[in-house]
Specification:
25% strand, eight-stranded mixed sheet, globular, 9 helices, 35% helix, binds S-adenosyl-L-homocysteine, alpha/beta, binds N,N-dimethyl-L-histidine
Length: 339
């Protein structure tokens, strides 16, 4: 399997939209097997938990996109403004031939980088990489509409398993934005970044977005928006299990819970059973008992400091080169290179 790049040298502005887009889909039936294994292990565990990557079916991806617009969720706005401020300098310094975005989602913030690439006048390919095929295809088409010089080679894959499919290059700018690294446990994050590092050449750079520790009230509000979009996003993981594994979760019998846990410096998101209940997951031949008030953890979202980001990068074989923060110190973008 390999990404098609035969269109790279066609003259800009003259190519049909479809000829500028290629999408590789390594996510296949083993996705279902992985989901089944993770759900079996997570719901069989005590306390129960589920990995966050299963939030993002088409509806979940759209719900996340709506979270980004809630007044409480400062992350997206803050990172966007920061990127707009620094993208020109980064593109000048790196002169990327490829912009590769892991967990690209709606690729909202990518535009700040692509605008800077456009201003630089140098050709560049965009490589979005995401588990959510619908979201990846929609965002790729929008970008191709907006940037007529752009070529997009998307990968619908799991970055825990398919990183080796990234197209090779000399001066690639890898983006991992949104604070998504915070959704992994510390050791898991280092394993992941080490794999990213192993994929990088000496002139490649990683731009990593991390949410920072701040006033707990601000953090708690960001995961408990008044409109209830985060609650719907959280419960959507139960719909994914119902749809893919013939589960019988009744979403009305679970409630959204999210709070900052200072000891681990992380937001924890849970679903709490409102009653004693047994839920069957037919495809797993599993009966899961929940006591009234029992919670299952659906996500962690770790909050960092400059020191904790630098040490996570160092443990992954990466060296922090630039640290960018806004005036309120809410969020950071760090540029790193292979040691
Ligand atoms: N980068 C965007 C989206 C963040 S949401 C932003 O900053 O707003 C996290 C994204 O990562 C989602 O689009 C989700 O589908 C994707 N994702 C989560 N786990 C993944 C995995 N294991 N492999 C690939 N993509 C994943
Ligand atoms: C994708 N990720 C960085 C988001 C976060 O803030 O941890 C997911 C999210 N969960 C609830 N709201 C947003």
């Amino acid at each position: 399997m390999g990404l098609s790049n035969s269109l790279e040298n066609a003259p800009a502005g003259t190519r049909a939209l479809s000829s500028r887009l290629s999408v590789l889909c390594p996510l296949d039936h083993d996705f279902l097997a992985t989901l089944a294994r993770d759900v079996m292990a997570g719901l069989g565990d005590q306390p129960k938990k589920l990995p966050p990557k299963y939030f993002y079916d088409d509806l979940g991806s759209q719900l996340f996109d709506r979270i980004c617009d809630t007044p409480e969720y400062y992350q997206t706005r803050t990172e966007q403004a920061l990127l707009e401020r620094i993208a020109g300098g980064l593109v000048e310094e790196i002169a990327p031939t490829d912009v590769i975005e892991l967990g690209s989602g709606a690729a909202r913030k990518t535009r700040a980088v692509l605008d800077a690439v456009h201003r630089s006048g140098r050709p560049c390919r965009y490589v979005p990489f995401d588990v959510s095929e619908g979201m990846l295809r929609r965002s790729a088409r929008q970008l191709l509409d907006e940037y007529e010089w752009l070529t997009v080679s998307g990968i619908v894959g799991d970055y825990d398993r398919h990183l080796s499919l990234l197209p090779p290059g000399n001066r690639r700018l890898l983006l991992f934005l949104g604070g998504t690294i915070g959704n992994s446990e510390p050791e898991e994050a280092v394993r992941f970044l080490s794999r990213v590092r192993a994929n990088m050449g000496p002139c490649d750079r990683l731009l990593l977005g991390t949410d920072l520790v701040k006033d707990h009230a601000v953090l708690n509000a960001a995961y408990n928006d008044r409109a209830g979009v985060t609650a719907s996003f959280n419960k959507n993981v139960l719909s994914v299990i119902n749809g893919e594994l013939d589960g019988h979760f009744d979403l009305a019998r679970f409630e959204h819970v999210a709070f900052f846990e200072p000891e681990c410096s992380q937001i924890e998101m849970h679903l709490r059973s409102t009653i004693d209940q047994t839920v069957c997951v037919d495809r797993l031949e599993m009966h899961v008992d929940f006591a009234a008030g029992e919670t299952m953890r659906t996500e962690i979202s770790r909050k960092f400091s400059r020191a904790s980001v630098a040490s996570m990068l160092a443990a992954s074989g990466l060296e922090l080169c630039h640290w960018f923060v806004p005036d309120n110190d809410y969020f950071a973008l760090s540029l790193s290179k292979p040691v």
